[in-house]
Each structure stands twice: as C-alpha cells, then as structure tokens.
Amino acid sequence: MRRRPFPVAGILAVLAIVLAVPGPDCRAQALEGKVKRITLDNGMRFLVVRRGTAPVFAANLRFRVGSVDDPGGESGLAHLFEHLAFKGTSTIGTRDPKKEAEILDAMDRTVIDLLREEDRGGAADPKRLESLRSDLEALTKSLQELTVKDEFSQILTGNGAAGLNASTSTDLTSYVVALPSNRLELWCLMESARLRDPVLREFYSERDVVMEERRMRIDNQPQGKLYEQLLLSAFEAHPYRVPTVGWMSDLEHLTRPQAAEFRRGFYAPNNAVATLVGDIDPAAAERLIRRYFDGLPAGPPPRLPVTTEPPQTGERRAVVEFDAGPDLMIAFHKAVWPSPDDPVFQVVDSLLTSGRTSRLFRRLVLETQLASEVYSAQAPGDRYPNLFVIGATPRAPHTPAEVETAILQELARLAAEPVPERELQKVKNQLQASFLYPLRSNSGLAAQLSYYEIETGDWKNLNVYAAALQATTAAQVQDAARRTFVPSNRTVAVLARPSAGGEKGAGDDATGMPPATTPGAIR
Amino acid sequence: MRRAAAALAPAVLALLSTAAWGAPVPVPPPDPRALTYPPLSIAFPKPQKLLLPNGLLVYLFEDHELPLIDAAIDFKAGGVFDPPAKPGLASLAASLMRAGGTDQQTPDQVDEVLEFMPAQVSLGAGDDMLTGSVSAVKDKFPEALRIFAAMLRAPRFDSSRLEVEKARAIEDIRRRWDDPGDVAELNFRRLVYGTSSPWARLPTEDSVTRIGRDDLVGFHRLYIHPNNAVLGVAGDFDGKGMKKLLEETFRGWSQAKVTPPQVPKIKDEIPAGVHLVARPVTQSHVEIGHLGVNRFDPDKFAIKILNFILGEGGFTSRLVKEVRSNRGLAYSVGGGIGLDSDRGLFQISCSTKAASTVEAIDLIRTILRQMREQGPTEQEVKEAKEAGINSFVFSVDGTVRFMQTFLYYDFYNYPPDFLQSYRDNLAKVTREQVHAAARKHINPDRLVVLVVGNDAVFARPLQSLGLGPPKPLKLDEGTAAAANR
After folding, report:
1. pLDDT given at position B27
2. Do residue B455 and residue B348 come from a single domain?
3. Pairing relation of β-strands A35-39 and B119-125?
4. Number of domains into which chain B is organized
5. For residue A509, what pLDDT is reported?
6. Domain assignment present for B156
7. Could you state, in order of their start, the residue ranges of all structural domains in chain A?
8. What is the pLDDT of residue A32?
C-alpha cells in the first residue's frame, strides 16, 4: 500500500541543528537564510539550498496535480501524462517536428474513429475496424522513422543523471533527478523545455505501458487489489476513491487531445514548485532559473475537484477474493492539515506500529502471534480529508477476524486510557529523529521542502508541523481516538481465497465494539 | 541516428556567450547537446584505518555536517554456508541477534532502550555476507553502540523470541507463492542454479521448524568473531575519541579461528527450455537467461557497458526501447549479466499481458541474438561510457553510503584503486570488447525461459518458440528434498 510520500514533519529541527541555531525562536529566521525562495512573475516557485560536499545536486519538481484532478471517465490521465512528459519536445525527440505534428494529428483522428467503432461492440463493422487498424499501424510506422527514441532521457542520462524518475499520487506529480553540480543549466534547460513545449508523442504505446503497470501493481497483486477495494469502499463520492493508475476501461479510451487539454489546465508555472539541493551557488542558480523559466506564460488557476465525501453513516465491509494468504486493512476517515488532528494521528501512527515496542507490533506479533506483520499510515493523500489505515498479515491458523478484534481492542484502549507520559515521549523522540535521516541525502531534503511548499503553500509549515507533533498531549490522542475509531466511521477490507467465501468478520457481532493506526553503488 | 547537434553547436554557443545572464532564454531554447560544462573535481573521502587489538579491522570516516553517527559491520557468513538440512539458519540467526536480547538485557529491555533514544539497529544475512548497522544522534551513539556490540558478542537468543521469529518466517514461507512476480524471480534462480544449490535453496516449514537455539549458538560460535569482520564508522566524531570508544566497547570480544564450510562451485548444468508455472493471472511474468559471471571476470567493464546498452540503462537501453517504449508490451522490462561471488545470473525480466507473452519472449530473444551477432553500435558504446563516467561522481555522494561501499570493496577484496581507476577502466572499453563480451556471455541457444502465467489465453502457444514443449513446474517441488540432501 502507499505510505505517506515521506514522513511529514521535523525537517526544521534538523536544519536548526545543522545551522547551529541556538533557540527555537531563531529557527524560522535561520532557515530562511539557508533556504532561498525565488518566485517568478509567472508564479513559479523555486527553493534553493546549498549543502553537502560532493559536487552534485538533486532536483525535485512538483506540480499540484494528481489523480484527484482526473476528469470524469478519464481516470489515470494525470499519471499517463507523467509518463508522456519524458517523450521530449518539438526539438528533442524527433527529426522533423512539422511532419511529425501532421502524423500525430492523423493518428488522433484515426484512434478516435477506431474507439467509436469498437464501442459499437457486436454492431461494429469488421471491415472498418480492420481498415482503421491498418491505418493506425501505418501511421505508427511512419512516425517511428521520425522519432529519436527517448532522446530526452538519453541527454540527461548521458550527462550523468542519477535517479531520473517521476511519480504521481492522488495529490501531486513529481519529477526527480540528481545531476553533477556543473549541469545545473542543463536541468533548467530540459525542465523549462518540456514545460513550455512538450510533444506527447508515442501516446498510444505509452497508454499500453500504463495498462501493464495496472496489471502488475493492482490486478495481479494481492495487496494492490485489497488497497484499491479499501479506497473504493471508504470513499463513495470523493475522487480519492479512484485508483491513481486509472480504470482499465478509462485507460483504453484516453486520447492525446485529452492529455493536451489536461496539460493546459494544470501544467502551468503557477502550479509548480521546484527545489534544488546540493553543491550549487544560490545566486548563480537564480540567474539560470530566471533565464530559463521567466518567459513561461502563467496559466489560469487550476480547476479544483468540488465533490466532498458525505459523512459515513455506518460500518462498511468488503471482501476481495484472491488466490493468496488472507490479509486485512481497516480504515477510518479523518481530517487533514491544517486540522490539529493531522499531527495527532502522526503520533497515533507511531504509537501503534513504529518499532518493536509499538502497541500493535507488541500485541499482534510478539504476544498473541496473531499476525506476522502490522503497519499503519495516513492515506491516500493529504490535500483532502483522508484515512487512517491499519493493515496486518494474519499468521495461520489465525483469521482476519481474530486480528481485527485485537486491533479494535487496542484502538479502544487508546480511546479509554491516556497514553503514559514515557510512551508519548518515546514516540516524540522517534518522530524528531525520523526527520534527521532523510537529510543525509540531497533528494530527501528536496522532496520534503517541495512537498510542504506545494501542499501547504509554505515550506516553513514544516516548523509548525514539527512543533505540533512535539506539543501533542495524551488528552489530544485520547480525544482524537474517541472521535475517530467508532464503528460508523470504519471500513474493513479482507482478502480471502475464492474457496473461503465471505468470511464473517469480527465487526459483525457488535459485542467487542470499541467506544472509539538514490542511485545504487558501483560494484 | 541522432540529430546533427554538432553542426548547430557553434551558432548556439555564440548565442549563449553574447546573451546577458538573466536575459530570457530564446525560443526555441538552445540545443542541450551543445551546452558545455566546467570540469568537476571529485574528492574521495579518506578513511582512517585501525586494527583493534582483537583483530577487528576498522575504517573511520569523519563528517561533521549532521549530528549523526552510523556504524556498519560485515561478517563473512550467510545463507550459502547453511547446513544442507537447515537452510534459513543464517537468516534466522541474524534476526535473533537483533531481536533476542543480550547477555545484559532481555529482548524487551533492548527494544525499550533503543526505541526511546531512538537508535536504529539492524542485522541481516545475505548469501555470503552478514551485515549489521547502528545509527543514532551523536550523543546517544556510545550507548547504542554498546548494545549493538553486545548483540554481536553475546546474544541471548531468547527462546520465546526464537519461537516468534520462526513462526513469522514460516508465515512468509506459506505466502511465498502469493505474488506472481516473486514466483518467477525465485524459481528462475532455482532453475539456473539448481534447487539444492546453496545459492538457490529455500527454507521450508520443516527446515525452519528444525532450527533450535543450539543451532543459533553454534552459528554464532562459528562466524561472529572480530577477525571475521570489517567495521566502518561515519559521522560527527573525532578520530581519537572514536578509537577509544571502539576499543572500550569491543574489549573482551575475542578472536577465534573461522573456517566456513566449502561451498561447492556452481556447475553449468542449465536446464535450457521453457518452464511454465500455470497461474490464472492476466499478466505473465517472464524470466529469461542463464548463468552469469564472477565479480572479477576479466570482461567486467565491457560487461558493465553491455548491460547498460542491453537492459540496465533505463529508458536508453535496447530492451526498454523496444519492448516497452516502441511496442507497449511491458511496464517492467530489463536486466543484464549479473556478477557475483561465484557466478551471478544472466537474467532478463519482463511482465506483459497474457495475450502478448510469446510475442514479448520472441522479441527479447531477437534483441539478445542481435546483440550477440552484431554487437552494439559505436554510438551506443559512446553514450553508455559517457553515462557511466559522468554519473561516477555519485559514488562519493553521502559519507554513510560511501562507507558502506568502501566496506563492501574491502570485504570482497576489490583492488585498492578500484574506485579511483573506475572511470579510466570504463573509458578504455571498446565496441569490439563489448561485442566480444556479448558473444562470450550471452548464449541465446541455451536460454532458460520461465513463464508464470495463464497459457490457455496466450495469443501464440509457447511451443511456437521452438524450444520444445513447456515443462510444467510445480511450486513446492524440490524444496523439502533439497533441504534433506
């Protein structure tokens, strides 16, 4: 399942140490000295941090667009667009941009006709289908003759790029790479070029690639399948219910004009944040950034999804049949930042499943041995009210129902008794330290800064979030648990072998109800 | 094959040099291939080398950027040395050194102290290396190191925790064949090395059940000695103080003669042909290959270039370009010639929708045959070398990571100048050497092809590959027998 993109919080404490800042009051100020923010007239924001000794830097470019922004019937589009962003520009990736543009348009027309014909099902004209398919094949062939295969990636890789990649979540799309520090101009050139002038070539073969990605990550993967069903059951209206990779039938119908329209709506400089961390001079970086990104035109403010999830009115249960060992996920709706509940649930997450002394690990894995693994997370995104999810792997002969009962009892305890002071302090110590470790890498720091800047509007909310974590009280934990961990707010998804049928879950008998989860080394 | 970047270069350069800094970039932007770069100087962290009185070899890497200290230790031990009747012993022993308490503290006490600090401690066994690590904020490090040292020197191997970890290991075994990707991965290894090979055998419910506390104690007595390890420390400390801390902490941990059992050499007895694990899945997992090479193979650098061009160079590799990007047949495809302590695996992996299974296998075979017959192009070799040489700087990015790599080189006796001479060695590789390496190390006529999938819905039958009828592979076949051998 998807964990939070990275632990949310705490970078502030660490930077404060790095900078040898004396007290908390000076923190924000001192950080401001270290993190240079550049805002262009077109609204694009850059954060630049000089650090480290090796002559390299990491870049993390995020757009505030994710699968929640997929138009209806076009699920998977944000993610497919992320794949297409590697296909180049009108000057990178082709031998003849003009001729190529004509062929691409002809392909779109043919594909749209073909889809229309195919959708007639039994009434489709076989001759027309065949002729359209052979047209498409011919166009694809003539296009391949013009294409310089994957030239965009090749240029970066040839210049020593490490970890060239991208990812799409429900909320965000992120483009990451690390380069030798003397290649900063190359990064500016390449990123501004694909933002200004992307050519979505090879659209239809890439659509096939994404369908394979869906088959791999979800359709044939027990945990992927279970998680997809959990979201579908927990959210009935909000787009968090739709899988980021998209539905197969939607993917089959996506076209290049739809992707171009999507780009116009979301891929504007005013919807992006780029963070550069490493051995680079911030002043020189600013000159290059302005040179390459200043001329990009701002776009209209992106359209936001309007659907909100109605309050859940009763427990929901789902069974996924799959030929694999039994599995269990439990989810509760909760608020997100800036609600004070968000940091409280970060503390709850650690209390329950972080480390061998955490409550659920101790009870389920060490003491009762009902499960072999247990984990928790806030999911699937952080932009809209989300879920607190607990998952566990039952250990034979124990059933998901037994595991569920034990988990619910622990949640009830969280609501019934205040967390002892020392246990709370342990969790706070862990949370504080967990932010230190990602700082050892440029990419870790870049990811955190970019994330806070784009998701909350200001990277300095890291400070606020970290402070909120440290200020969390036992009473807050108890209160949040009491309000959240109630049956009517609960969704339980169970994976069972087809022969086992729908197993009766613990929640069916209402007795035990609680009142209230870098580049590899050279070898 | 590429656009005429060179011809454009002079014009673009002139334009760049006359443009004032900060002036907007022209539309269209300059050709990225025409950019020039100042030279990069790479400094290799220089560790301080110590030999403690008990024979423990130590490398210290001072780095004061963050208030953290990390230590890592590598022992010559691991799964390939497991007794034939007890596969899984090394792995279980390592996890119990971590989870089973020490002579001073119960498992609960250890966990409470470490997690309150907090410190991260891990221990795990690989094939022929057992690795441990500890990391903490600098002022907590001495206490964390003391506990870590006690885990190494005097593990308690608490019996009730042993039962917990055995039960978890058995649950993992029960679920071993749940994910079709894992089924393909593990069984390809078993096919190529042989199910009873130390490099491929798997623990079974029986073999794990048979492992008792005495076995762990015996394992510890055989391998976990200071003279059988190399230790590295990296982070915010001063060398003198760290030397003193290490001497104090590891005092009393004594040397012993370590004689690991002989591991039989891997035999080249490849069961070439098509093997099938029938599964009602909509996507097939395919593994194709045979034995790979030794980590010190004389063709090592040519093989690195070959692998990059063939299937390890991401988007720019032939397999990704053809199978994924051109044909849309896979999201995940790639692989290359593996290098390992004895012989690695030459392994190409691909997952594709059921209907296109045979098409994808055929395409991969064609790519392999072309590479063997024609070799790479000059341009491909040039680009692969550039990528390897330009990205080399990342080998010194991050002191902790550098330390781990450094220990690895020391552990496997790499030449002392391996890293320093790495770029030169890559630069020296010629197209002919890469082609020769392909001819020598890729044999398209002796491929093992393993398919996990639903052959009833393949668009073409597996027989049409011309590799004979597919041999059905039963999943648990061999594991118990191998364990008893």
Report:
1. 64
2. yes
3. unpaired
4. 3
5. 37
6. yes
7. 40-94+147-293, 316-506
8. 57
Do the Cβ atoms of A182 and B40 come within 8 Å? yes
- pTM (whole model) above 0.80: yes
Note if the bond before A397 is cis, omega within 30 degrees.
Answer: yes
Examine the domain organization and report whether B290 and B330 are in the same domain.
yes
Backbone dihedral angles phi then psi of residue A161, each to the nearest 5 degrees: -60, 140
Q: Which residues contact residue B435 at a Cβ distance below 8 angstroms, ignoring those fewer than 6 apart?
A: B374, B375, B376
Q: Chain B neighbours among A 137-166 (CB < 8 Å)?
A: 144, 148-151, 153-155, 157-162, 164
- Whole-number Å distance between alpha carbons of A478 and A25: 30
Instruction: With CB atoms and an 8 Å threshold, state whether B391 touches A162.
Output: yes
**Minimum CA–CA partner of A213 in chain B:** B331
Which residues of B are less than 8 Å from A186 in CB distance?
32, 35, 37
Cα three-residue angle B351-B357-B360, rounded to 5 degrees: 80
pLDDT tier for residue B120 given thresholds of 50, 70 and 90 = very high
Nearest partner of B404 among B217, B164, B42, B133, judged by Cα: B133
Q: Tell me, yes or no, whether B159 and B279 share the same domain.
A: no
Classify B90 as helix, strand or coil. helix
Query: How close are the terminal C-alpha atoms of chain B, in Å?
Result: 56
Number of H helices, E strands in chain A: 19, 11
Nearest to A206 among B39, B68, B328 (CB): B328
Range of the domain at B11: 5-33
B48, burial (CB in 10 Å: exposed 0-12, middle 13-18, buried 19+) = middle
Q: How far apart are CA A193 and CA A189, in angstroms?
A: 6
B207, B85 Cβ separation under 8 angstroms: yes
CATH label of the domain that carries residue B149: 3.30.830.10
Contact indicator for A80, A210 with CB cutoff of 8 Å: yes
Check CB contact under 8 Å for B135 and A222: no
Q: For residue B77, give the 3-state DSSP assignment.
A: coil
CB B400 within 8 A of CB B235: yes
- Give CATH superfamily name and number for A316-506: Metalloenzyme, LuxS/M16 peptidase-like (3.30.830.10)
What tokens appear for A35 in the block?
């993190």
> CB distance A178–B394 less than 8 Å?
yes
Q: Options 3.90.1150.10, 3.30.559.30, 3.30.70.940, 3.30.830.10; which CATH number does A40-94+147-293 get? A: 3.30.830.10
Task: Indicate left, alpha or beta for B42 from its phi (over 0: left) and psi (-120 to 50: alpha).
Answer: beta
Closest CA to A463 of A26, A11, A5, A4: A11
End-to-end CA distance of chain A: 31
Candidate from A204, A222, A357 with C-beta closest to B179: A222
Same domain for B390 and B348 = yes
| Amino acid symbol at B167 | A
Same domain, B220 and B317: no
- Within 10 Å of residue B153's Cβ, how many Cβ atoms? 20
pLDDT tens digits, one per residue of A423-446: 999 999 999 987 788 788 999 999
Task: Give the DSSP H/E element, type plus range, for residue B68.
Answer: strand B68-75
Q: Is residue B440 part of a domain?
A: yes
8 A C-beta contact, residue A197 and residue A293: no
Beta partners for residue A495, in sequence order? A320, A327
B contact test, residue of A44, A140, A149, A296 with most B CBs within 10 A: A149
If one counts every other C-beta atom within 10 angstroms of the C-beta of residue A474, the result is 15
pLDDT of residue A186 exceeding 60: yes
For the record, the structure tokens of A247 come out as 């539905």
Q: pLDDT confidence of A34, banded at 50, 70, 90? A: confident
- Same domain assignment for residues B187 and B154: yes
Residue B293 identity (one-letter amino acid): V
- Are both A40-94+147-293 and A316-506 of the same fold? yes
Q: Are B84 and B152 in the same domain?
A: yes
A325, A393 contact by CB (below 8 A): yes
